[in-house]
Specification:
Number of strands: 9
Structural class: mainly beta
Largest sheet: 9 strands, mixed
Number of helices: 2
Order of helices and strands: HEEEHEEEEEE
Helix content: under 10%
């Protein structure tokens, strides 16, 4: 599981098993116009992350510093696009303004992660893949090994604002490896003990006090995400204690967030377990 901090908490996202196009997401209440359709108004923001906790399926249940299987640093490019006003029936409980339909996306690139050894983190390798060993996990993380990561997340939601603002999204955020991350609508904007979850990242394009609904009409949901995936790769030589070890893990909304054996794993054993 990846708590979609990023979650990565991670991931109480709505898992869809098919890729949904932006056009398919547009509610019937949004009127179509004749002729060529202009591109929707879009706002974009880029954030450089440092030491962001990345959750897996075997993290330490006690929240705190470096209690997930890895921390990552990467660049996130996020966008939100406005698709128009819809009936207020899509926004039950709205207290001000009108109801508007939006989509969004976050793209994580230039990613690097470092595993947190089990001895100090209490977390184990994130997946359930055995890498062909046939050994039953979860597997102990023996060393701080460094690998590469990338991912993306798609959103669909309603809000009572019809414009976004890119400058509201931070240009940099250091989460210091600490869980939990806080909601975007809190007073937290990043720092030593808090940040914004992946599920709610795009809420930052809107002012504090904005109301949000998921596509099922739930007010203030824990997640606005629809579907997404992240890929983690530990190449040979990354684990200095076991230089021949190479592993990869895919966590996505369509694969039980990396919980299936076929999704692989990130293995970082110490020398005694090579």
């Amino acid at each position: 599981m990846r708590v979609v901090l990023h979650h990565l908490g991670r991931k109480r996202a709505v898992a869809l098993t098919t890729v949904i196009t932006a056009a398919a997401l547009v509610p019937l209440g949004v009127a179509a116009t004749a002729g060529a359709t202009p591109a929707p108004p879009t706002w974009k923001a880029t954030t450089v992350f440092s030491i962001r906790p990345i959750s897996g399926n075997h993290d330490n249940p006690v929240q705190g510093l470096n209690h997930t299987w890895a921390d990552a640093s990467f660049t996130r490019s996020a966008t939100v696009s406005y698709y128009g006003q819809v009936s207020k029936s899509f926004c039950p409980g709205i207290t001000s303004g009108e109801c508007y339909y939006w989509i969004g996306e976050s793209l994580d690139t230039k990613g690097r992660f470092t595993t947190n050894p089990t001895a100090t983190s209490g977390a184990y390798s994130p997946g359930n893949g055995t890498d062909g060993t046939g050994v039953t996990g979860p597997f102990t993380i023996g060393v701080a090994a460094r690998g590469q990561m990338a991912g993306r997340y798609h959103y669909g939601f309603y809000t009572n604002f019809d414009t976004g603002k890119s400058s509201r999204v931070p240009a940099a955020e250091n989460d210091h490896g600490t869980m939990p991350l806080a909601a975007a609508t809190s007073t937290c904007t990043g720092g030593v003990y808090c940040g914004v979850t992946d599920c709610q990242w795009i809420e930052q394009f809107f002012p504090h006090g904005a109301q949000f609904w998921d596509l099922n009409g739930n007010l203030d949901p824990s997640c606005l995400g629809l579907y997404g995936s992240w890929f983690y790769f530990l190449p040979q030589g990354s684990d200095e204690s076991c230089s021949l070890v190479m592993s990869k893990w895919v966590t996505a909304s369509w694969n039980n967030w990396g919980a299936d054996p076929v999704d692989g794993n990130v293995l970082a054993p110490d020398e005694s377990h090579c």
